[in-house]
Write a structure and sequence with these properties.
about 325 residues, 13 helices
Length: about 325
């Protein structure tokens, strides 16, 4: 009789635990589904803003590209490739849509894996939402706009940035040549490691002509220590980098740091210090900090273990990243 009583108690406790787990999973599922709808809606509205002409830098990007095509026909294909993001189906938009699809597909899987994995997917969805803000997207376009300005040989002015000479001087940066603002941005290329263990920047096909315009191959070690300001590398990276792209960036940084250490040198992260630019950009832009996932729909805080920013997330989508090749 006593054994039967304890068996009933055990079954009751187990049932309560299972109910609690099920309730927590349902809660996480609901929160992730809600954030997915928010992020999805932001992308849709961003595309509408682009079509309606509400983002000034989309006009400027198109205009600069057209001027380069007219003045420098040999750069026509390259300038057209850079101008794609002036439209609603450009590479940046497609990348955001791809990331959203990956995160959305992983929701049913991660809700069974515990709070940490759920929070990482939520942070990715929050980063996508932030990237789809019209003002932020407009600032992201300042990099290709300024590349076109540099390609114009002084005819076109940079936007939301210091002049090339002033920026290099104030940031003690090396001039790698036209297009250097896009180095490190996974929309345009990736870091490739050779047989000697050194990493060099490799442009995707439609941007490959930059290789002939730069002052030779750009090595990660030299670039990391001497890079100049760019919106992506100094402000936009946390919003416009997928989890898999971030993982690749971290791997390149680790291997480079180890290589420097083996030769008795020190290597700091290329992103350790924010490069200086105009005060207006610095005031307007900020490092993105993703919102933590609340433990309930009414909760206003989470345990300290889940408050790390998305930039430190190790969440790896089960799908391959969107590539620009």
């Amino acid at each position: 009789m006593q054994k039967f009583k304890w068996a009933r108690v055990f079954i009751l406790c187990l049932s309560l635990v299972l109910i609690g787990c099920s309730s927590e999973q349902e809660k996480s599922q609901k929160q992730l589904d809600q954030q997915t709808l928010i992020s999805e809606g932001k992308i849709v509205r961003l595309k509408q803003h682009i079509v309606a002409g509400h983002i000034a830098n989309t006009h400027l990007l198109s205009q600069y590209a057209e001027i380069i095509r007219q003045d420098h026909p040999e750069l026509g294909e390259l300038s057209s490739a850079l101008a794609q993001d002036a439209g609603p189906e450009g590479p940046i938009i497609r990348s955001l849509e791809s990331r959203l699809g990956d995160a959305k597909s992983d929701i049913n899987h991660v809700v069974t894996m515990g709070r940490d994995q759920v929070n990482k997917v939520y942070q990715e969805l929050s980063a996508i939402e932030a990237a789809a803000q019209p003002d932020t997207y407009g600032m992201m376009l300042s990099d290709p706009i300024n590349v076109l300005a540099d390609m114009s040989q002084g005819k076109l002015a940079r936007v939301a940035a210091l002049s090339a000479e002033a920026s290099a001087r104030i940031n003690d940066a090396e001039d790698f040549g036209p297009g250097s603002q896009l180095v490190g941005n996974p929309q345009y290329g990736s870091w490739q490691t050779n047989n000697s263990g050194n990493s060099f920047w490799h442009w995707y096909g439609q941007y490959a002509f930059f290789s002939s315009m730069l002052r030779g191959p750009i090595g990660y070690g030299n670039w990391g220590r001497n890079r100049d300001y760019s919106y992506y590398n100094d402000y936009g990276r946390s919003r416009y980098t997928s989890p898999s792209q971030r993982k690749n960036q971290q791997a390149t940084e680790r291997s480079t740091r180890q290589k420097f250490k083996n030769s008795g040198q020190r290597f700091s992260s290329p992103y350790a210090n924010t490069k200086q630019t105009t005060s207006a950009v610095a005031r307007k832009s900020s490092k993105f900090q993703s919102r933590p996932l609340a433990r309930s729909s009414t909760a206003k805080s989470t345990a300290s273990g889940t408050t790390s920013s998305y930039r430190n997330s190790s969440y790896q989508s089960s799908r391959s990243r969107f590539g620009g090749k």
